[in-house]
Amino acid sequence: MDKIETLEFKIAKFLRAGVLVAGVFIFIGWMSEFSMTENPFNKFSTYQKVSFFNVAINGGWSVILSYAGLFILISLPIIRVMLTGFLFFRQKEKAMGTMAFVVLALLLISFVFGIEV
């Protein structure tokens, strides 16, 4: 196996581990939210808009863990594009590496414009 295939294999292992870590965070967050003494679906009967900072201040660790898992899961494709760009530049394919970083920039711009304030 040459160096490039080794790097691609390491990227694939990193992504697989990232998905598992994100899944564990989300699972722990969801399971800590449930109570065995009451109906767990009572919270979902009405919509309550709550700020993330209010949840963090009031000790909503289950929600914070779930959000951390979602953040990890969302950041994995971004990391993949960045690592692929570095991999292309290492292979001396400048056009593909530049294209990967253009895609990365567009992803980041789309996240910035997608945030509601």
Characterize the structure shown.
This protein has 117 residues and is mainly alpha-helical. The protein has one domain (3-34, 50-112). It has helices at 3-33, 52-57, 61-90, 94-114.
Write a brief caption for the model.
The chain has 4 helices and no strands.
Structural class: mainly alpha
Q: Strand count, sense and closure of the main sheet?
A: none
- The level of helicity is over 70%
SSE order, one letter for each helix or strand: HHHH
Number of helices, where a helix is a run of at least 4 consecutive DSSP H or I residues:
4
Tally of individual domains:
1
Rounded mean pLDDT is: 84
Give me the Rg, rounded: 19 Å
| Terminal CA distance | 49 Å
Features:
117 residues; mainly alpha; elongated
Topology record:
Blueprint: H1 3-33, H2 52-57, H3 61-90, H4 94-114
Helix pairs in contact: 1-3, 3-4
